Amino acid sequence: MKVHILNQQDDILLDLDQIEEISAYIADKFDQDSQCEVNIIFTSRVQIRQLNKQYRQKDVQTDVLSFSYVSEQDDFMKQNKQKHGFYTLGEIIICPAVAQDNAQQQKGPWDLILELALLVIHGFLHMYGYDHEGQEERTDMFDIQNSMLEDVRKRFELA
Question: In this predicted model, what pLDDT tens digit does every residue of 141-159 receive, in sequence order?
């Protein structure tokens, strides 16, 4: 899967090369189709709040939003793949400023890059239909998320 990183914020300095490498590794855990792509967009506190209000009717800042373009009727994806040679799986929108706040509240060795890796994994899980509304769903999703994060942590020698 091809990962496109778009940095639309200037609040937090990001190592975009490292983030792209980690995100590509995570993406390949979900899908290795080279004709599939995902956009990971870094945005400001104001923008993430506006998007959260617009799409989730929650007028608060959040750390990550996911938008999946996959549906059970994936005719659009098939047409796009035939016409353009690729299809976009979805978008993960992350607010690095909120992620930094989250990282500072964690216990033990934790930093911004590890928090961003967690949010990328979380975003992918949502795109693939995982949710954490109910206790059983939450347990399933977070078990996968924690396992993947531990893999990323070891692979990239993160905090």
Answer: 999 999 999 999 999 999 7
